[in-house]
Amino acid sequence: SGAKYARTKAMGEDAVREAFPGAVIVRPSVVFGPDDNFFNRFGELAMISPVLPLIGGGDGKLQPVFVGDVAKAIVACVTDPACAGQTYELGGPRAYSFRELMELVLAETGRKRFLVPLPFPVAALMGKAFEFLALTPWAPPLTEDQVELLKSDNVVSGTQPGLAELGIEATAVEGIVPAYLYRFRKGGQYADEVERLTAVA
Question: Is the pTM of this model over 0.85?
Answer without folding.
Answer: yes
